[in-house]
Amino acid sequence: MRMGKIQITTKLSICAVIFGASLLANSTGAPTFVTGAPGDGICTDCHGGVANSGTGSVKVELVDASHWTPGQQLRLRITLADPTARRWGFEISPRLASDANQSAGTLVVADSTNTRKVSSAGIQFITHTSTGTYQGTSNSGTWDVLWTPPADVNVGNVTFYVAGNAANNNGREDPGDHIYNSSLTVSPGSGSTPTTTTYALPQLAFGGGWYTALYFNNTTGSAVSVKASFFGQDGSPLTVPDAGGTTKTLDIGPSGTAIFEATNTGALTQGWVKVELPDGVTGYAIFRQSIQGRADQEAVVPLTGTSLSDSTLIWDDTAFATAVAVANPNASAVTVNVTVLDSGGNSIGTSTIDVPANGKTATLLRSLPGLAGMAGNRGLAKFSIATGGLSVLGLRFGGEAFTSIPTAAPVGTSFALPQLAFGGGWYTALYFSNTTGSPVSVTANFLGEDGNPLPVADAGGTSKTLNLSANGTALFEATNTGALTQGWVKVDLPSGVIGYAIFRQSIQGRADQEAVVPLTGTTLPTSTLIWDDTAFATAVGVANPTASAALVNVLVLDAGGNQIGTSTIAVPANGKTAALLRSLPGLSGMVGNRGVAKFSVPAAGLSVLGLRFGGEAFTSIPTVQQ
């Protein structure tokens, strides 16, 4: 996901007093009014020293948007980095740029495990919790917060003030605790025209057995247009017959859904897609491979940002092959630096990938010079360029099966895999990589559909702890042995650890099918997915990470944004419920349609996984959480 730099006058102050006596008092959150805003203090008031005098930095990024629109909730990502620090804290407060004594909009907690909201004298703050100081974690700490903008665009720019302490965790106040602050700026979108953010689908393939579909959903209450521009591998505009040219504009009504299909007609054509998404529009792609005499294979492909200069993915070439497509959205050719590490965090090799201006290069990763040592190993691959942005897509091939590999990193700590299946033809793998310079441990807890701890033979119990070295990678496999067992997984990820899951279905006489499954958060009360039941069937797994039973409300809309129906899903405390969505009472009208499904609980959190089945093929469906 792209994180557009904020264009509100955003000053960030992240203050955590985490030493000596102050550790006991403030490790559960910074005191209010220490953000560095006009009239506020700053963390150096307690810690001493000079702000921004260390070798680190603090930054805030706006996720999936570049401006704010009245009432449309946005996500902010705060990253505090320092190579010497081992404990972290922050405080953020939004104010009117025209009057720093007035709060702007509404802050909402996105991760109740690591952050909490406080208010004083009419001013709002979000700060860390004790868990959210990430004690012992090296290099950086990251937090997400949500923000609902003001209802009136005429209030103008909004300023986020933040200050932060990157502490050395020695229990004392000393120069080893470094305070940082910075400023960024966000403005409201101009007039009634929504602002857009540029995304990429780094691989487009149609014809010669391949099909690509792009799905989009408009979560706003106003009509929008999405423009897709097609480019060849050499950077020239690419004519796509189904688009009638080199671009395609899709008009989407309020709460509506749209699809563009590059069909399997003629010889194989490849390229990539640049997509301009208005704020509040989400989307993903589907690849389908059709070969005569074999079952179709499908893979979901997330859209990737175009502004970041680096990207990371977990690869596994033990029994598979990892391919990458790298798109260059810049007007000049770039050389992409590639560093590949094994599961122990040791360097396998380095290489480069040359990509033309506005072009794309696809390659088998281990075929690059210097990377032959990937064969038989697994680990982490890092891609970077000196300036500008890049977009990277990973693809994993094993036998006839293929799936995408996510390059986006989870942020926060509490995650879920809402569906676990092993035995009876099913296999589930969990991959984790530690992007930090210090060893960490990851514990996966297995829970049954009824909420009770679930014994998993491959784990030797109801949980599994994996130890990851610095820059290391680990894998847990629930193998296809015995009768089918189902449940879900709760995972607490240390800061800097990324991960995903792979499902594999093996049925005698058929080619294996694989699907990548992203880990989902557990703290937000709503989740949305785009579904398509025209020639497919949509199933969901809903996990309840709370200690009380939950009744999940389901609202289903068609492609025009019209209501098809509502239903509910009962989920036990710490349990999971799986269902074919259209089989729920009130949702039979999904058959033959496509649209969006919204899941919500009144409070606390939920985790939703979508799965799409068509013939013998299946893939996951990304969800958007709020």
Descriptive notes:
- By secondary structure, the protein is an all-beta fold.
- Strand 20 and strand 21 (297-302) form a beta hairpin.
Labels describing this entry:
2% helix; 8-stranded mixed sheet; 2 helices; mainly beta; 626 residues; 5-stranded antiparallel sheet
Average pLDDT reading? 88
Q: Low-confidence runs (pLDDT<50, min 5 residues)?
A: 1-25
**Coarse shape:** globular
Strand content: over 45%
Task: Kindly state the percentage of residues in helix.
Answer: under 10%
Radius of gyration of CA atoms, rounded to a whole number? 24 Å
* Record field, number of beta strands: 48
Distance between the amino and carboxyl termini: 15 Å
The DSSP helix count reads 2
Sketch the major β-sheet.
8 strands, mixed
Structural class: mainly beta
In terms of topology, how is this protein built?
Elements lengths: L2 E3 L1 E2 L1 E4 L6 H7 L17 H4 L9 E7 L10 E9 L4 E10 L2 E5 L2 E4 L5 E6 L2 E6 L10 E10 L9 E10 L10 E9 L9 E11 L3 E9 L5 E9 L14 E6 L4 E6 L6 E10 L2 E9 L7 E6 L1 E2 L4 E7 L4 E7 L6 E9 L4 E9 L4 E5 L13 E7 L6 E8 L2 E5 L8 E9 L3 E9 L5 E9 L14 E6 L4 E6 L6 E8 L4 E9 L7 E6 L1 E2 L4 E7 L4 E7 L6 E9 L4 E9 L4 E5 L13 E7 L6 E8 L2 E5 L1 E3 L1
Parallel strand pairs: 2-13
Antiparallel strand pairs: 1-4, 3-13, 4-5, 5-11, 6-7, 6-10, 6-12, 8-11, 9-10, 12-13, 14-19, 14-22, 15-18, 15-20, 16-17, 16-19, 20-21, 23-28, 24-27, 24-29, 25-26, 25-28, 29-30, 31-36, 31-39, 32-35, 32-37, 33-34, 33-36, 37-38, 40-45, 40-48, 41-44, 41-46, 42-43, 42-45, 46-47
